[in-house]
Every structure is written in structure tokens, then in C-alpha cells.
Amino acid sequence: MDEETGRLRWPLAADQAPPADRGQLFDDAPPAVHHVGVGEYRGLEFLEVNAKRVINRVPAASRLPFSHTINAYRGCSHACSYCFARPTHAFLGLGVGEDFERRIVVKVNAVERVAIEVRSRRWGGEHLAMGTNTDPYQKAEGRYHLTRGIVEVLGEVRNPFSILTKSTLILRDLALLRRAAARTEVSVNLSIGTLDRTAWRLFEPGTPPPRGRVEAVRRLNEAGVPCGVLIAPVLPGLTDDTEHLEEIAAACKEAGAVSVSAIALHLRDGVREHFLGELGRLRPDLLPLYARRFSAGAYQPADEQRRIADTVAAIVQAPVRTTLRERRPEVPAAPLGEQLGLFSPACG
Fold first, then answer.
1. Whole-model pTM?
2. Which of 33, 80, 186, 249 has the lowest CB atom count within 10 Å?
3. Residue 297 neighbours by CB under 8 Å, 6+ apart
4. How far apart, in whole angstroms, are the C-alpha atoms of residue 54 and residue 61?
């Protein structure tokens, strides 16, 4: 937000004159400066903008397993206190704390832009990753249906894509995802950091319950939409003990996940200050442990990261029980989980 004018640095949809051939994204509601949520969206403010482009190229230095991303929203009502994307709100002149959780930027022309960009002669049909910088199935999606529209477009043009989400709202689009998977390469990963309801409520209060996400993994795979699990992030002193890791890995494996991998918590500048502030408020007894684990920077010691990965891999690679073997193949460990910790704000 500009300190002198009080205006969002990204032009709002109502401030821009749409092209003559643009048409309306919604028949019953033209874009506006902002909408204050009511009912199930109470407490949220939606800032509608027209994006010049929606498909973003990932810098080669990011070393990610994909080259292009789509993020129809900025900010996230899931309110995960550890979210690595929080600093991206600062680029817009908004706060990384409550603003990130409550003031959601909505690219209202995202579906139209994707339809144009993937049909361009310059577009090579590269894999498109959704959910790299904000959850595509957060609460705003229930109102705007942008992710649904993008999935429909990508399926129509047979463009491969992947989705990373914490939300069971993805099941709303199960039939659409199944149709897309029959036409092109489609993959989904559910992020499920814990089965412990106390840790879940404390540090990701806006997300669906973890057991519900495990069930979503089952339903997606049974419908023919390949779905893996990222146990992420694993929180020191809360969800990183061996018993906990074995429990969640086994649950995801039994749900038919096509891959299961774990990512240890990392805290970069901007996120670190916010998360440790929340930790001090909710679990001050853990602050000394976090001071030790992150004394060298944003990442925990390599041996701790390796212990977490090895514990999960051992469960994933263990023989499948007879009752499960009759229904599902063994679940391979996925290297993707280790790479997803490298996300950059440039992804979104």
C-alpha cells in the first residue's frame, strides 16, 4: 500500500479500462475496487485486479522441476503461520501478517488470460504448476471459481499441469480433473503436515482438517487423478518425532498416495519473524529449540532434514499389507518434496 496515497500498488480492476473484447468474467457482477466478505467469507477482503499476464516463467536459478507457474490469487486465507509466500504481500505494499491472511488479491481475468496465453503461437505447451505461491483452492476459490476455469481451459487444450493444495475444495472439481487427466498429464499433491489436531489448529487454522485431506487423496486416486502427499512442513518439537512421522506416512500410503515425501520447516527472512512471533505467543516453551535449529540460517541442520526424510521413506518403501496390495501398488518416494522448499517469490 502506498503510504502517501493509501492505494494498492497493483492497479485495481475498477481502475483499469478493460479491452473491448474482454467480456465479463461474471455475468452478474462487474469488477469492483474491493469486496468485503460476508457469510462464510466474513473477515476477508477481496482486492480485484486485472493481470497483464497470468502464466509466469520461473527463474532458472530457482532450480525447480517446472518452468512456468499460475497463481490466480495472492495472499491466502489458510493463514498458515509458517507460509513461505507471506513476503510476496510486502511486494504489493501489504503486510505479511493479517493482510496476507485477510486481504486476498484476486486476478479476476485469470481464466481469460490463461485461455489467450496457452493458445498463443509462442506458447510451447510447457507444464504449468499451480499452487506454488498461494493455494489455488483457498476460500476465495469458492466465490470466484478461477482455478476451476483454468483447469477446464488446460484440459481443453491438452496442456499438462499440476496442483499443490491443502484444501479438500479440490474435490468439487473431481469430475473436471478426471476429464483433464484423460486428455493430458495431470498430477496433484495434497500438503498434509500433521495429523495432530492441536498442531493443526495452532499453526494452519484456516485449512481443512488433516484427516479430511487424507480422504481427498484417496478419492482423487480412486477417480484416476494421480495424487501424492507432501508432509510439509515438519515442525520441530511439534510434528517431527518418529512416531508422528510414521503415523502420517502410513495413513497417506494407505490412502493410495502415488508419492509421499517430507519437507522440514525452513524460515526465510520475513517469514521467520512472523512465525517465531506466533510461536512465542502459542508455544513459548519451544523458542529455545527453534533458536538452536535455525542458528545457522533459514534451514535446519542437514542431518535433521535427512532424519525426517529417511523416516518417511522407510514407511513408504516398506512392504504393503496384503489387504492393501490387492487394491493398490506400492508407493514410491518422491524427490519432488525436497525441491519444493526452494520456491521463490518470483513464482507468483
1. 0.84
2. 33
3. none
4. 21
Q: Specify the CATH architecture of the domain 56-66+111-347.
A: Alpha-Beta Horseshoe (3.80)
Domain boundaries, the chain: 56-66+111-347
CA distance 279 to 147: 32
Tell me the C-alpha distance between 97 and 89, whole Å: 9
pLDDT > 80? residue 303: yes
Q: How far, in Å, CA of 118 to CA of 98, rounded?
A: 35
How far apart, in whole angstroms, are the C-alpha atoms of residue 254 and residue 247? 11
- Per-residue three-class SS string for the chain: CCCCCCCCCCCCHHHCCCCCCCCCCCCCCCCCCEEECCHHHCCCEEEEECCCCCEEECCHHHCCCCCEEECCEECCCCCCCCCCCCHHHHCCCCCCCHHHHHEEEEECCHHHHHHHHCCCCCCCCCCEEECCCCCCCCHHHHHHCHHHHHHHHHHHCCCCEEEEECCHHHHHHHHHHHHHHCCCCEEEEEECCCCCHHHHHHHCCCCCCHHHHHHHHHHHHHCCCCEEEEEEEECCCCCCCHHHHHHHHHHHHHCCCCCEEEEECCCCCCHHHHHHHHHHHHCHHHHHHHHHHCCCCCCCCHHHHHHHHHHHHHHHHCCCCHHHHCCCCCCCECCHHHHHHHCCHHHC
The grid coordinates listed for 129 are 504448476
Find where cell 525447480 sits: 64
- For Cα atoms 337, 268, 275, give the angle at the middle one, nearest 5 degrees: 95
Distance, in Å, from the CA atom of 198 to the CA atom of 213, rounded to the nearest integer, reads 16
The pLDDT of residue 334 is above 50: no
First and final C-alpha spacing in the chain: 18
Q: Please tell me the number of Cα atoms within 13 Å of 196 on its side-chain side.
A: 18
Q: CA-to-CA distance for 125 and 110, rounded, in angstroms?
A: 18
List, for residues 34-69, the tens digit of each pLDDT value.
667 666 888 899 999 999 999 999 887 777 778 899
Q: What is the pLDDT of residue 58?
A: 87
